[in-house]
Amino acid sequence: MNRFVLHDAWAIASHIALSVLTSLFPFLILVTALAGVFGTGTLADEVADLILEAWPEEIAGPIAGEVHHILTGRRSDVLTLGVVLTLYFASSGVESLRVGLNRAYNVRETRDWWLTRLESIAFVIGGAFVLMAMALLVVLGPFIWRGILRWVPALQPFDGLIAFLRIGVATVVIVVGLILAHKLIPAGRRSFRSVLPGVGVTLFLWLLGGFGFSWYLEFYPGAYASTYGGLATAMVALIFLYTLGAIFLFGGELNGTILAAKQRRLGKERQPELTDVITFP
């Protein structure tokens, strides 16, 4: 927690929240354009649903309406003139995560800014294709299950399990995304084992935070509306993302603290070995 405060994580969490909120729509527009090129326009809606699946209903509902309104049209024009700006703004969310994680792991970015920006754009494009593939799985899942039931009718009692497919896919996206974020986005490289503590704590606190935020909005539905008026929907989403960003950085600081403690312990263990080989007359 001391590292969290000393690294200005509260301020960086607000930067992450605003960057993610402003990059969400350019990212979905890019997904829509890619889906339109491949002739699978409905996948854009599925990708949006997957992203918002883990959000509390009180927050995801109003945003989902705006998202689906934007994604109703065919956005193939984005792949021509607007592709550069779309990719740039969509990659800003990745860059905000890089700033926070570099501080959390106490590393300094030595690469040129344009190289890190290209890396962020590559993450955005790769994430778009991965989400499209998982959305296709969600779309085809019910058809595949019905085909299985025709051949094996005895599985009919398990028909309700197919409803967990969406939740399972959303969970996989979150877990894999967290692991890749901690391993690849900040400078340097970390082992898979070294990032697991922060990822586990982040998932647990995100779960608690989601339940807590849902409970607050359910029992105090007019709290934000009385304060922010017509901007209540945007402010609720921004505060929710701010909370998620702070928890995400706390997970990074936990990993950074553990790694720093291991380095200090290794340094103390090696120090006697160095003094043993020194002889004095």
Automatic annotation (TrEMBL):
Taxonomy, superkingdom: Bacteria
Keyword terms, alphabetized: Cell membrane, Membrane, Transmembrane, Transmembrane helix
The UniProt entry lists membrane topology as:
Multi-pass membrane protein
What does the entry list under GO cellular component? plasma membrane
Q: Which InterPro entries match?
A: Virul_fac_BrkB
Q: Any transmembrane segments, and where?
A: 12-38, 78-101, 121-145, 160-182, 194-216, 228-250
In terms of one coarse class, where is the protein primarily found?
membrane
Q: Which compartment or compartments is the protein found in?
A: Cell membrane
Q: Which PANTHER family match?
A: INNER MEMBRANE PROTEIN YHJD, UPF0761 MEMBRANE PROTEIN YIHY
Q: What is this protein called?
A: Ribonuclease BN
